[in-house]
User: Fold this.
Amino acid sequence: MDISWDDAQTFLAVAESSSFSGAARRLGVGQPTISRRVAELEARLGCPLFRRGKRGAELTEQGARLVPAAEQMARWAGEFDRLARGAEEAPEGRVRLAAPPALAVDFLAPMAALARQRWPGIRLEILASIDHVDLARGVADLAVRTRAPHEPGLVSVAEVAVPLGVFAAPEYAARAPSPARLDELDWITWAFPYEHVAPRPMLERAIADFVPAFASDDYLVQRAATRAGLGAMILERPMLPKSLPAPPQPAGLVEIDVGFELPTGALHLVCAQSMRFVPRVRAMIDMLGELLDV
Assistant:
């Protein structure tokens, strides 16, 4: 029996989303299409792959056994697509770059204007997300991560140190002690389901019984609350070079003196080994390395 990649992709999307509607959104098709494809696959296999219920779609024992094979097919499909697209000679086509929201807003979006001028044939898409995207499957061509990659087939092509600072609205900063202790400030940080995302764990270690003054699962909402004067945020200091117009501080905010330098973070530019010499990807790697001076 031949199982097509379309069948395996549909099955894997439902398995990873635990939802027919979630799989439909991921694949860009209607939920009835997903339900029909899964039903047809189950009929050909002669066994149920999912239990439908109030909690979504749960894998059956038979379905769970198929997940590793479907994941391997996804890796092969991504590799096939990368190699096929790597036959190009000029740096043109779509480049998807995944990055944490802060970097996407403050660095990559302004960089896109320069990329457009230099490489008009490249269409840059920025995927701003806390969650890691799967580079092995070709969900993105490049990713900026806070840790070096350990997955097979991925490589870190650049690393840059990121200085951090405490920022707030000017009126809030004017009321704060100078220097201010960390426990003297009202903090704005990540909410569920991202309490594990930096810098919240650092604040929880440094401040006894830490409770944020405001929290959100969205970076832009946090920035808006900070600009409104609700409290302070730990942010990357601007990294944009002189070749790009950039304010000396995050827009609308000023830095607060806390009496010591915060630990420096690190960012890694990661891609699949098979993608690093594809012309359009190589062009973006070189540009990012030039702008970040790495």
Summary: The chain has three domains: 5-85, 93-162+266-292, 164-263. The CA atoms of residues 59 and 290 lie 47 Å apart.
